[in-house]
Every structure is written in structure tokens, then in C-alpha cells.
Amino acid sequence: MKLFDLNGKVALITGSSRGIGRSIAEQMAAHGAKVVISSRKALACEEVAEAINAEHGEGTAIAVPASISSKEDLQRLVTSTNEQLGDVDILVCNAATNPYYGPMEGIKDEQFEKILSNNVISNHWLVQLVAPGMRARKDGAIIIVSSIGGLKGSTVIGAYNISKAADFQLARNLAAEYGPENVRVNCIAPGLVKTGFARALWEDPKTLKLVTATTPLKRIGLPEEIAGAAVFLAAPSGNFITGQSIIIDGGVSSV
After folding, report:
1. CA-CA to 88 of 20 to 30 Å: which in 5, 6, 18, 251?
2. Which entry of 100, 101, 160, 178 is annotated as an active-site residue?
3. What is the domain count for the chain?
4. Three-class secondary structure of residue 214 per DSSP
5. Does 98 reside within a domain?
6. Is 178 tagged catalytic?
């Protein structure tokens, strides 16, 4: 058994035109999978797919833009994947939204609803679309990218943290449901990672020093370091892991 071999697998990764999602797609392609690049912007998806194909061969990646806020878009995403590459073997729910920064007291209903819809319900929709095929084949890996924010309270990103805590429970529920058919469902919970999404926390040296002061490794993470965990969970190396949340935060939550 080759523990990290993804040859013959089809991986659909949302939010994969940049940041953590892009790194996951790149690393899964490097380990043999055919990957679907998806985010809202078509051009950004196409650029990533072209770069992966240039490195690993034409047909390794396809671009299928879709908005996670639209159930119809997600249906089209899965249908297009099935038509072009085949059944989805690996689903990575990475795309997420955080349109509000501030105390829960001030959040508008539509902002709260958008966070819950995009960060939790859209994951549920995607799983509903791909899980039946996985269960029929008795093989599949579903990975939800959550956050260490789901483990603690916050005075400024409380709604986002609520959504990420819900993702932990979504994975546990699905793991219990799908386990008998050999479909594994897990979460990855990153800490602060050097992505555009978190730019405000690492771009300024003073802010970066503050946020890493209590981090045992004394630095923030890199997208490819999160991608490694996704490959691990999707490959044979993760065959006996389900319902779990792997925290990747440089040790922040351990001290």
C-alpha cells in the first residue's frame, strides 16, 4: 500500500483558486489525483487549473466556477465534474465567508444568515450531492476545512466561530451516518495561516509579533502545511480516521 497515493481519484475542492484551497488542489494533483478548481471567479479558476496542468499534464485539473451560496451552482459543479472527470472520490469543503467583524450584538440578520449558509449549509448541500455515489461505491473521503475559531469564543468574529463549530459537528454526524459504507468525514482546523483571507493579521510586523507571541512554534502557518493534512486524510493513510478534527495551529490551542 502506498500511503499517500491518490492516483485514479477525483478531488473536488471549493475555494481553490487561492490560499489553502489552492494548495490542497496542488498537493492532491502532485499525489496523483485529478482535481476540480472552483470558486466564484472563472478567470481565477482557469489560471490555477492551467498552472496545475502545466506541471502535471493536461487533464489533471479542470476549472468549474461556482458560488457556494447557490444550490443550483453547486449542482452544476458536481454534474460538470461527473461529466468531465467522473465520480467524486474526494470532496474538500474549503470555501467560507466572513462579512462581519465586530461583536455579536451588532451583527445584522442578513450577515449572520450569510455566514451560516455559506459556511455550514453549503457544505451540507455539497455532501448531499456527492455522498450517494461514494456510499454506493463504498469508498470516499470528505474533508471540511473548519478553524480553531470553532473551539473558542471571540468578541469580533463570533458568528464566524459559531459556523466553524457547527462544521465540527456536521463532520461528526456525517461520519456516524456514512461510516458503514466506508465513507470517511473529517475536519481540518487551521490556526493563523499566511493567506489573503488573514492578511490583516500577518502583513504588519507588529501585529504579527503579537499574534505569534503565544504560539509555541513562534510563526504562522503556510497553506501547503494545511494541504499536507488534507492529502493525509484523503489517501490510504487516513483509511481508519473518521469523525475527527485535526488542529493545525503551531501549538496555539495546546498552551
Report:
1. 18
2. 160
3. 1
4. coil
5. yes
6. no
